[in-house]
Structure formats: structure tokens, C-alpha cells
Amino acid sequence: MQSKEERKLHKASPIFILLDNIKKIIFPVLIALVGPGGSYWEYIALAIALLVSLASVIQYRFYRYWLEPNQIRVKEGILFRNERQVPYKRIQNLNLTQNPLHRILGVVTVQLESASGGKPEAVINVVDMDAVKELKRLVHGNEEDAEALDEQEVVEKKSALLRLPFAEIVRYGVITNKGLVILAVVFGFMSQLSDGALKDYIEDKIVAFADWITASFDSFIGDLGALTIVVYVLVLAVLGLLGLWLLSITFALFKLHDFELIKNKGKLQATMGLLTRMQATIPMSRIQTLTIRNSLLHRWFKRLTMSVETAGGVNHENQGLTLKEIAPLFVSSRREELLREIQPDVSWQEVEWKPIESLAVKRITKKLVLVSAALSAPLWFVHWGWIPVAFTSLSLLGWLYARTYVKNTAYCLDQEMIGFKSGVIFKKETYVRLSKIQTVQVKESVFDRRYGMAKLEVDTAGAMIGAHHVDIPYIMLDDALRIQNKLVERVSHQQFVW
Amino acid sequence: MSEKQSLIDVRPQESKRLHPDSVKASRISHGIFAFILLLGGSVAAFFAESWLLLGIIASAVLLIFLIGYIWARKSYQYTWYWLTEEGLYIQTGVIWRRKTLVPRNRIQHTDVAQGPLQRKFSLAKLVVYTAGTRDASVPLDGLEFSVANELREQLRQDGDDDAV
Description:
Number of strands of chain A: 21
Low-confidence stretches of chain A: 143-156, 314-321
Protein name (chain A): PH domain-containing protein
Number of domains of chain B: 2
Number of helices of chain A: 16
CATH topology of the domain at 414-498 in chain A: PH-domain like
Strand content of chain A: 15-25%
Radius of gyration of chain A: 27 Å
Distance between the termini of chain A: 27 Å
Shape of chain A: globular
Pfam family, one (chain A): bPH_2
CATH architecture of the largest domain in chain B: Roll
Largest sheet of chain A: 7 strands, antiparallel
Structural class of chain A: alpha+beta
Structural class of chain B: alpha+beta
Keywords (chain A): Membrane, Transmembrane, Transmembrane helix
Mean pLDDT of chain A: 81
Oligomer: heterodimer
CATH class of the largest domain in chain B: Mainly Beta
Strand order of the largest sheet of chain A: 7-6-5-11-10-9-8
Distance between the termini of chain B: 46 Å
Organism (chain A): Kangiella taiwanensis
Helix content of chain B: 40-55%
Strand order of the largest sheet of chain B: 1-2-3
CATH architecture of the domain at 414-498 in chain A: Roll
Number of strands of chain B: 6
InterPro entries (chain A): UCP026631, YdbS-like_PH
CATH topology of the largest domain in chain B: PH-domain like
Shape of chain B: elongated
Helix content of chain A: 40-55%
Largest interface: A-B, 37 and 33 residues
CATH superfamily of the largest domain in chain B: Pleckstrin-homology domain (PH domain)/Phosphotyrosine-binding domain (PTB)
């Protein structure tokens, strides 16, 4: 079954390589063409880019790989040859992508990720289903796991942990509101356009649209005098929000259509996508951290979102396919069950939350009162009477915030894992199994020192910047040190396995 | 502030300091930095033909150097490290203090690095690498060269024993 023969990419590969290359250069090219132009250097650069992308099609002829008993060996490159060996054991995630064209031709793009971070270890663009099956069998080490991306085949398999019907995807779109991201991209693109014909055209359209809204408004409501502007702003805000939501729902539909999460012999496998079907596989033992998100909108719909971090380097969505959100949206009541399914070696029933110090309310309030003072000071230029009003209300809000913050923040520690939850509007809880802990840090700021408090931070592999992690603030120094010691004891008895 | 126990007070008997020469080395590097700053400033002042500018720059550089001079001693006083069965503890920070623990069995590899200035004082920097993200590399700068090597040896040997 483990043949040592040399393998090549599928014959259709050049098409996909070319498409990928075009995708990479399309935006600069568009900008160069649409923009003011003028300098013919731009055209030269364009020509070079086109040549390079055409030439890279030849890449495919130089791409070889071997499936050896313990590792995959990949050889690529025309001038700069590169040979790479990835042991099957080191492969963290195996991701498959199929867009409509892939499906017509019956081929798949495969990404192999190891823990090295950054780019995927190997990208096989593209091979046919048989090759994928063999690769999967070797990487995952079992026979019957190989299955196609086709929906029918997957559905026939085991019962899914989670499926997202249409209504759930709509809710997901509303809750996450990725529309803002799309809007940002559009604005980013707009700002890239210098004064060209296209920009004028788009601006004209926007102005015309605004005019149309104003006109239809006036005819509908009539003149409201001074209130008109308020009504405009309100209506525009509502329309904008609705538009964003629609965008976001559309986005979610494309990405999550027919989402399915399957647990199969210690591995999680998710399949999703409307046009481009994607499949990602994570061994459960390789989950580094697990986060449950619960925002205000989540609570409204009684839903939760579960995401994980793996040591596989691809943590940015645009770098490749990742299975960050293993359960994009599920009913709150399934929380325990899903946790147990995904991390079976942790005893989830006996989670005992310990609060942070209640003295923290005072500290946070103090901080926020200072902020309120700074915020309300500029009102002097309007009228001095506003200052006490603004200051009092802001400080009161600050106090309420501090109280809720402290109430919602807690940590738990048991034999297998450490957990931390926090957040006022966006509540989040994160769990780290002790065997995945890398370093433990106790931090003490000047302010902490005054109160004898400290902060405890746990570092793991593959942690995303800005994501929610186990950073427990406002605990007594003694507690922090005690936890650190306890963690040390347990961590040093557990070997880290990626 | 004083009656409350601080992170720095809680450390075991066997905790060690960096080599005292590290203060000197860091002061010299501060001096070199200040000198380069001053040089750049003087060139700017020369072209601007302003004695006032030169005076301002010189006093600013002097202030920077003085702060660096004091800081070198302070940070030496507040840096401790100790090795236990479980791993390497590093305690740093003058104002914002932190105590980092790197468990032995989480160490991926270690580096001992030496710059020209450190070579002169036979000092070295030990860098411990983990698979973590924020603490992917944990540096310990200003050790005596032989001590750094010894520490690395200890971390490695024992790490191998632990690898079950």
C-alpha cells in the first residue's frame, strides 16, 4: 500500500496554478489599469507579473512527491529546487479545498500543515480523489477514513456532531456581522483608486443614490423642520445596519453552506462551503486551546460559538483554510455535550469557578473615573454645565462596567485543565489542557503591587494575537504563585505532544 | 507600597543573580548608544548652525544616558533566576515585574549567544525556546559565559531524562 513510486500532479493542475497566480496579481493589475496610469513603468511591471505567472505554470511539471512509509517527500522548483520531507506524524492538519471547477474535473487541492507556523508545509495543487484517499490513509493511519468531499457520501457516514441548517447560518451571519469586514475591504479598495474614471463613476452612483433616498424621503414624510436631520441619521443607520447584516449573511452562506462537523476516531472533520467546498481535519489531541464565545447577540438567540487553536501555523484566514470555529453556532443547551465530545479527557462536570478579587471593582472604577474625567473635560468649550453631567454619568457607567466585569471574570483549575472566562458584552471562556501549556508567567504591575495583586498568564502553541487566552488578572499574588506552582507540578509530569 | 509583599520578595534560597559585569557591559552599550545619538545630533546642529539646538540635544542625550546608567544597576538588582526540578524560573522587571516559568519538558532548544561587548566581559545570553507563542523565546541576558553553558547543559541533560 505504501508505494515508493514518484507521483505527479493531476493533468489539470496548470489551470489551477494559473488561476491562483491570477488571483494573486489581479488587484495590483486592476489598480494599475484603472488608476491614473501615466508612468509606463507600471505597464512593464504588469508585463513582468504576467510573464512570471505564466512561467509558473511550468512549475507543475517539476512538482513531484513520494509517499514513503513514514513521510511524504515533496520536490518542487525550476531554478531553485526544493525538497522537503514531512513525517506523517508531524502533520497537524490536512485540509482539502474544492471549488466548482475542481468538482467538474474531479480534483482537490490539499494543504498539509505542520506545527512550524506560517505557510502550510506542503500544498498539493491539484490531485485526484484516489491520491487524496491514499494520502489521508497514510496521514491518519486508518483505512476506511478516506472519503470524498461530495455531500452524499459524507452524509451517509456517521452522524454529525453539528450541522448548520439555513436558519442557523442566517443567525450566524447576524451574530458575527462580518459585513463590516467586507465594507472595510470595499473602502480600502476605493481609497486605492486614485482619480480615475471608475472612481468618478462610483462616486456619481453614490451621490445619485443619496439623492434618491432624500427625494423619496421628502415625498414620504414631508418636511419635519429641524428634526429632519435626526430622522435621516436614524433611517440611514437602520438601513446601513440591515445592509451590513445582509452582506454578512450572504458571506456566511458562501462559507458555511451545508456545514457539518464529524467526529471520527479522535479526529474532528468539518466540511463546508457553497461554491468552494472545504474540508479540514484536526486530531482532537492536537487542540491547544478551546474558546467558547457568547456575545450579547449570542445570548439573544441562545446560541454559542466554539473555536479552537491548533499548533498548525495557518492561523490567518487569508493564508489558507483553517478550522478555527469548529462549531460556528450551536444551541446553548448543547454546551456540555459538545465540550465532552471535543475534549473527552477533561471532566467537565466538576468545573468549579473561582472569582477574581472583588477589590478589582475599586481599581477598575478608579481607572474609568479618570478616563471619564479626560473625556468630559473638552465639554468646557461647549458649556461648563455639561461637564458634571457627563462626568457623573460616565463614571456611573464605569462603575457598572467594573462590577459586571469582576462578576463575569473567573478561573478554574483542576487535574487536567485550566480555564478562564471574562467579558461584559462579548463573554468568552477559554480552556487549556495542562499538557498543552508551554510557559506560565506571573506579572505584577505597579498598581498590582499596591494591592498585593498579580496577573497570571499561560502561554500555548499557536496562540493567535488578540484572541482570548488564559490571562487571569486581579488575583492575589499568593494565589497566582500557588497556581503557578501547581501548574508547574502538573505540567512537568505531562510530556508535551503537539 | 512597602508593607505588601511583592513578587520580587518571594523567591527561593537558591535563586541566582546575573554576573555583576553585566551592569558594566550594559552601561557601556548605553554609552555607545548615547554617543551615536550625540554624534547624529551634533551633525544636525552643525547644519542648522544653532548652538541652542546642540545644547538641547546634548542635555537630552545626557539625560538618556543617566537613565540608562541607573537602569542598568536597577535591572541587575531585580533580575534573578533559579533552576528547579520542574524548570527554569526567570524573575525580571523593575517597575512591571514578571516571573516566567519554563518547564523543563517544554524546552524545544536553547541558544547561547555572545556579542562583541559581551565577549570582552566573557558574558553571554541564554535563550530558551519553547513551542509557545508569546514566550516562544525566553532570553536571559548577562550570564557569565561558562554559567550560561552550564545552565544549558543542565537543561538539556535533564530534559532528555524527562522525555518519556
